[in-house]
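Entry:
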Amino acid sequence: MTHVPISVTVDGTVYDVEVEPRRLLVNFLREDVGRVGTVVGCDTSNCGACTVLLNGRSVKSCSVLAVQVDGGSVTTIQGLAEGEDNWHPVQTAFKECHGLQCGYCTPGMVMSTVDLLSENPNPSEEEIREGLEGNLCRCTGYHNIVKSVQEAAKIMGGAK
């Protein structure tokens, strides 16, 4: 198969590589770049577990081809934290408010929350639920996830 050259920044590091045109972004991130915090959930873009930020906006990386991100910037769950002890406020809120159980959906929930709060720093409960609509959790019932988003908004200075 023919490979296509791309240049993409992932979590602050530039990668100039060649990829197969049909290579999914999620596989590129996990297998070529080693960003295994981005999980493969359903492979159909239904669950949202593979959500990353592409140029600051949340996308499901199982529905994006690696060649489509040429020239772009991707942030994964691993790229949010600034070191091992300096978590992003959304990550901290999910931990403190018990917004996870098995943790499988958590990377996608966190990344979608970062995007949601960048667009709406003080969302209502209804807006939070709508903003996370494309992310499925089979364990929590979403109550603590909503609390986590509300807490993150407070930490980040959006919520009153």
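The longest helix spans residues 106-119.
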